[in-house]
Amino acid sequence: MADTPKYNVVKSVDEWLSALTPEEYHVLREAGTERAFTGEYTDTKTVGVYACRACGAELFRSADKFDSHCGWPSFDYVDEDRVELREDRGYGMVRTEVRCRNCGSHLGHVFDSERLTPRNQRYCINSISLRLEPAEGEGGEA
């Protein structure tokens, strides 16, 4: 049997339900997906750090965010010490799921070989999985 990942933040279902809105819980803890083009960070250009909405762990930097026009925030790089990648065979597809390495919450998926970035990767992340922490002195657009 495979080892269960060990997370720094572990909560019961009831604790997650009380800490998150129903929509946040659905995406973060049940691996749901928000509707395309509805998330608060899809088009933002604010300079800062994107953290996990569930636990506050730093995940992405605004410098790595790009306009993919796919309907969700997209990043072309992430420190893999911050996320865990898992095979996802849901919905009749084989994809790579992205989870927060600190709490195990679902963030989105990573796609390779689309030729959209120099690294040839697109981390397609649900806005509702993130909380943007603007850089000090930055509140506006870059």
From TrEMBL:
<dbReference type="Pfam" id="PF01641">
    <property type="entry name" value="SelR"/>
</dbReference>
<dbReference type="InterPro" id="IPR002579">
    <property type="entry name" value="Met_Sox_Rdtase_MsrB_dom"/>
</dbReference>
<dbReference type="InterPro" id="IPR011057">
    <property type="entry name" value="Mss4-like_sf"/>
</dbReference>
<protein>
    <recommendedName>
        <fullName>peptide-methionine (R)-S-oxide reductase</fullName>
        <ecNumber>1.8.4.12</ecNumber>
    </recommendedName>
</protein>
<feature type="domain" description="MsrB">
    <location>
        <begin position="13"/>
        <end position="135"/>
    </location>
</feature>
<dbReference type="InterPro" id="IPR028427">
    <property type="entry name" value="Met_Sox_Rdtase_MsrB"/>
</dbReference>
<keyword id="KW-0560">Oxidoreductase</keyword>
